[in-house]
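Milestone 3.1: sequence recovery, worked example.
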C-alpha cells in the first residue's frame, strides 16, 4: 500500500537546489524515528564532509541507490525579479511561496514577455537571494497522485520504503541534481574507496512520452543525455522479466540525472535510471500513476537482492 501521507509530507518540505537543509533535517529525524523497526539497521553517514547529503549503509553493500532531495525553484533577484533554479515550467499565475527575513512570502509568478523577465507579484521587496518554490496543492485520486515536486520526492519515498527491508546495499540522498549536480562526485569517491561499489540505481522520476505512457509500468532508461553500459542494463532487464515486474524501456536523447554525474567520475561504476513516468513535469501539477509507483517499489526490492 502506498503511504500517501508520507509522500504529502515530503512534497510539503521546501528543498530547492542549494537549500536542502530542511529536507536533510526531516530525513535524519525520520531515520532516527523509524530505523528501529526496519528489518536491518543501517550505518547513518552524514556531517560536514557530506554537506546536506545522507548515506545509509546496510550490511555488505554491492549496489548503491541514489535519490536526490532537491527540487527546481527560483531565486529572488532585484525588484522581485526571479532567476530560475533548474528548469521550472514558466506560466503566469503559478503560485510561489517562500520565507525571508521579513516573514512569509506568497504570490503569483508573472512573465513579462516584452521585457523578457520573470517576477513574483508581492506587496513588498523580497530579500535578494531568497529561494522560492511552487506552492503545494496535493491531490489524490484512485489512480493518480498529483503535486509539485513529485520529482523527486517519489524517488526519496522509494528509497525510504526500500530501507525498511534492505539487507545489503547503500542508499544515498544527494543534493543539487536539478541545477548541475555537485554532490555526486565526492559521494561516488567515498563509495568506491570504502565499499568498492561498482553499480548504482538512480531512484528518480522521468517523463511521460509517446513511448512511455502513464500506467504501463516503471521506466527503465536505456539512455538519456548519458548512456549506461548495455551489459548492465541487460542484467537489469533480465532480472525484472524473471521477477514479473511491469516495466517500460525508455530511450531519450536529452535529460539527465545523478547517473550522468556518476558516469563522469574516474571509477568503473555502472548506473541505470529506473523511475516512474510523470505528466506535467517541473510544474505545480506533476502527476504520477499509482501503479507505476508500485512497480517502481517492486523493481528496486528485486534488483537490490539480485544485482
Amino acid at each position: 500500500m502506498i503511504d500517501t501521507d508520507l509522500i504529502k509530507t515530503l512534497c510539503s518540505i521546501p528543498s530547492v537546489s542549494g537549500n536542502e537543509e530542511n529536507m536533510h533535517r526531516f530525513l535524519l529525524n525520520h531515520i532516527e524515528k523509524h530505523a528501529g523497526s526496519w528489518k536491518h539497521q543501517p550505518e547513518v553517514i552524514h556531517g560536514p564532509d557530506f554537506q546536506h547529503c545522507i548515506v545509509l549503509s546496510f550490511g555488505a553493500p554491492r549496489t548503491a541507490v541514489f535519490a536526490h532531495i532537491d527540487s527546481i525553484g527560483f531565486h529572488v533577484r532585484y525588484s522581485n525579479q526571479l532567476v530560475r533554479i533548474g528548469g521550472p515550467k514558466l506560466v503566469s499565475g503559478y503560485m510561489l511561496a517562500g520565507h525571508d527575513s521579513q516573514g512569509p512570502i506568497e504570490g503569483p509568478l508573472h512573465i513579462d514577455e516584452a521585457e523578457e523577465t520573470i517576477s513574483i507579484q508581492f506587496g513588498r521587496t523580497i530579500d535578494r537571494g531568497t529561494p522560492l518554490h511552487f506552492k503545494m496543492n496535493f491531490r489524490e485520486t484512485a489512480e493518480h497522485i498529483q503535486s509539485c515536486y513529485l520529482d523527486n520526492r517519489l524517488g526519496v519515498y522509494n528509497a525510504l520504503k526500500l530501507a525498511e527491508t534492505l539487507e545489503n546495499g547503500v542508499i544515498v540522498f544527494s543534493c543539487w541534481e536539478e541545477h548541475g549536480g555537485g554532490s555526486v562526485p565526492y559521494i561516488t569517491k567515498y563509495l568506491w574507496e570504502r565499499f568498492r561499489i561498482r553499480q548504482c540505481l538512480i531512484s528518480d522520476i522521468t517523463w511521460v512520452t509517446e513511448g512511455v505512457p502513464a500506467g504501463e509500468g516503471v521506466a527503465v532508461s536505456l539512455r538519456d543525455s548519458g548512456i549506461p553500459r548495455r551489459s548492465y542494463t541487460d542484467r537489469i532487464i533480465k532480472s525484472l522479466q524473471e521477477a514479473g515486474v511491469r516495466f517500460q524501456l525508455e530511450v531519450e536523447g536529452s535529460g539527465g540525472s545523478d547517473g550522468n554525474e556518476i558516469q563522469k567520475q574516474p571509477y568503473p561504476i555502472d548506473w541505470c535510471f529506473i523511475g516512474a513516468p510523470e505528466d506535467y513535469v517541473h510544474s505545480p501539477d506533476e502527476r504520477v500513476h499509482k501503479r507505476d509507483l508500485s512497480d517502481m517499489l517492486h523493481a528496486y526490492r528485486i534488483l537490490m537482492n539480485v544485482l
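The helical segments are 4-12, 21-34, 150-163, 184-195, 230-243, 258-263, 290-306. The mean pLDDT is 97.
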